[in-house]
Structures are given as C-alpha cells and as structure tokens.
Design brief:
Blueprint (H helix, E strand, L loop, with lengths): L7 H15 L6 H8 L14 H6 L27 H14 L20 E3 L2 E4 L2 E5 L4 E5 L5 E5 L3
Antiparallel strand pairs: 1-2, 2-3, 3-4, 4-5
Length: 155
C-alpha cells in the first residue's frame, strides 16, 4: 500500500504514462515515432500492385478463382513392368532370330612370312619381341609370352 492515497483515475493514467515511456525502449521516443509512422502515411507498407498485395491492403481480388477442369484429367493405369523371366524370354527370342550377314572370319589363317621389324622412336619390334633401349648400354626385351629380360644393347 502506498503511504498516501491516490485516486484510481490517476493510478490508471500513471500506468498508461509508464507504458508509453517504456514503449520506445533505449532508442528514444523520437526515433520510435520516426520508425513507426511518417508524415506521408505509413512508409513501411509494401510497395506493389500484385494480387497478394491488394489482398493484404483489403482490396477485392480481381483474378478469377481456380476451378476444376472438366472430365477425367488423370492418365490411364500404369502399365505392368516386365518380370525377369519376361526379359530373359525376349532376349532368347532375339538371339534365336539373329542371323549374321557375313560369315565369321577364319581363325586359322596361315602366316606366310615372319613379321617385319617395326621401329618407332626408341622401341623396335623384331619377331614378336619388343626391344626398348634404356640409354645406359642395356636394353629391355619384352617377349611374346610377357616375360621381360635386360640384355646388353647390340652395337
């Protein structure tokens, strides 16, 4: 209880004045008023003339609402996916129907002459062997069976 009696009317005015002074917080009353309202109306209203802005401002919408399309707009049923056995059966039929247009090449063609030596850059091929000179007086020879040997370079 306060020490001295206050009329109820001034107590409500005191609360109202206190709330009004607390409203701007630390920014100051002039800044608070300048940021919330200007001389030319509310300067913080969104600018635009889109349908949403007109609706926010309370103006009637001029666009016609969306309506349903007449008839059935959905596509037909989803086609069934082929099973693995269906795919295998189709592949077997394609293999059975395949007829090559040219006969397969003969794999036993006789060789009439030994291969001629081929050389290019620092490598040479003689009789199926690939000879690569190392530059230190030796050469690396790769045999047709994949084995590798190092031999002195012939002069």
């Amino acid at each position: 209880m306060p020490c001295f009696p206050l009329p109820s009317l001034s107590r409500s005015r005191g609360w109202l004045l206190g709330l009004a002074l607390l409203l701007p917080g630390c920014s100051g009353f002039g800044t608070f008023l300048g940021d919330t309202y200007g001389f030319h109306g509310d300067e913080h209203l969104p600018i635009g003339d889109a349908e949403n802005v007109r609706r926010v401002e309370g103006q009637p919408a001029t666009e016609a609402p969306l309506t349903t399309e007449p008839g059935n707009v959905w596509p037909g049923p989803v086609p069934t996916e082929p099973t693995l056995s269906d795919l295998e059966r189709a592949q077997d039929q394609e293999i059975k129907q395949y007829r090559p247009s040219t006969p397969p090449p003969s794999t036993t063609a006789p060789r009439t002459s030994p291969p001629a030596p081929i050389s290019g850059g620092n490598t040479s091929e003689t009789g199926g062997n690939i000879v690569i000179p190392n530059g230190d007086g030796t050469s690396t020879v790769i045999m047709p069976d994949g084995s590798v040997r190092t031999i002195p370079t012939p002069k």
